[in-house]
Input
Amino acid sequence: MKGQTYVILAIILVIFVAVFAVTNVEPVEVNYLFWTQESPLILVILFSVLMGGIITASVGVVRIYRLQRDIKLLKAENDTLTKKLEESGLPIESIKKDSKADLEDNDSTTK
Output
């Protein structure tokens, strides 16, 4: 359901930007760092939206990469702690059941 909402919002945004860009087609003077040039406003708008999307996607990809790396590190730490528990002779299955019950309790209280 969440994915469908994002798709619908993205389609609405694309339609809004397209209508906005098409209604603004007159040439404008664009000042770059070392020169100026006249460009149609529609190109300036579409280029700006494209660059904004690319920058936003890049930030999202970096964040996902970092979260996946953290998950990998936490899984490795969890495995080492589980091995230490096994070596010390503690019943791991009862600990897993207790922690699973604690997680379910936390989920039910946060909803």
User: Anything to note?
Assistant: Residues 6 and 76 are 33 Å apart (CA to CA). The longest strand covers residues 27-31. The two ends are 18 Å apart (CA to CA). The longest helix spans residues 41-88.
